[in-house]
Design brief:
By secondary structure, the protein is of the alpha/beta class. The chain has eight helices and nine strands. The strands form two sheets. A six-stranded parallel sheet has the order 3-2-1-4-5-6, with helices on both faces. A three-stranded mixed sheet has the order 7-8-9, with helices on one face. Helix 5 links the parallel strand 4 and strand 5. The protein is globular, with a radius of gyration of 17 Å.
Length: 199
C-alpha cells in the first residue's frame, strides 16, 4: 500500500485519487491512507458498501453497478480527471482507467495483467503506469503503524476463519460478488491471534 501510493504514485496533498474496489481488504486501507495524505478520494463500490467507504473517508462514492465511474469522475472534476488511479480489480477496470485520468496522471495496479492493455488514451495524457507487487518492508510498515497510532487508519476485519477453514476463505475471496468489507483474518489457535491475510 505504502509503496503504491507514496513511492510509485507520489500522491500529494490536494491531489485526487480513484480507488477501485474501495470496500475490499486493500481498498479500504488505501482510502484511509490517501485521506491521511491530504487527497480527495473517489472510490467504486456496490450500493451495499456505500456507507462503509464513506466511514473510511471517501469523498465521492460511485456505485459501479448503477453509474459509469469515468462519467462520474469527469462530471465531478469538470472534465479534468483524477491525478491517480489505484487499481485493485484489473481486467476491463484497469483498461478503462486512463479515461478517468488527468493530464500527467498515474495509474498504479496491484493486479496481474490478464489481458492486453490499450495504452492510446494513457499515451495521449502522458500518463505513467506502475505495477506493484510488494515485499515486507519495515520502514513502510512503521509509517502505516504511525497512521494507526494517530487514528487515521482503522483496518476493518470483515470475516474471521480458523486455519482449518482456509479453503472456505479462499472460495469466498474468489467469488466475484462475495459481499466482504475489509480484510479476512485467520484465527491462529490456541492463542486465537488474528492474522490478516491477502489471499
Amino acid at each position: 500500500m505504502w509503496e503504491a501510493l507514496v513511492v510509485r504514485a507520489a500522491l500529494r496533498v490536494g491531489e485526487s485519487i480513484l480507488v477501485h474496489g474501495g470496500a475490499g481488504g486493500v481498498g479500504h486501507v488505501a482510502i484511509q491512507v490517501a485521506k491521511a495524505m491530504g487527497a480527495m478520494v473517489f472510490t467504486t463500490v456496490r450500493d451495499t458498501n456505500v456507507d462503509f467507504v464513506r466511514n473510511m473517508g471517501a469523498d465521492v462514492v460511485i456505485d459501479y453497478e448503477e453509474e459509469d465511474y469515468v462519467d462520474v469522475i469527469l462530471r465531478e472534476t469538470d472534465g479534468h480527471g483524477v491525478d491517480v488511479v489505484f487499481d485493485t480489480i484489473g481486467g476491463n477496470t484497469l483498461s478503462r482507467s486512463p479515461d478517468a485520468l488527468a493530464q500527467l496522471g498515474r495509474v498504479v495496479s496491484i493486479v496481474d495483467i490478464t489481458q492486453p492493455q490499450n495504452l492510446v488514451e494513457a499515451w495521449g495524457k502522458n500518463a505513467s503506469y506502475h505495477f506493484v507487487f510488494t515485499r515486507q518492508n519495515r520502514g513502510k510498515l512503521d509509517e502505516l503503524s504511525a497512521l494507526v497510532a494517530r487514528g487515521q487508519l482503522r483496518p476493518h476485519v470483515g470475516a474471521v476463519y480458523s486455519l482449518a477453514d482456509i479453503p472456505v476463505a479462499h472460495a469466498l475471496l474468489e467469488s466475484p460478488k462475495n459481499g466482504l468489507q475489509g480484510k479476512i483474518a485467520i484465527a491462529v489457535e490456541p492463542q486465537a491471534h488474528l492474522v490478516s491475510v491477502n489471499i
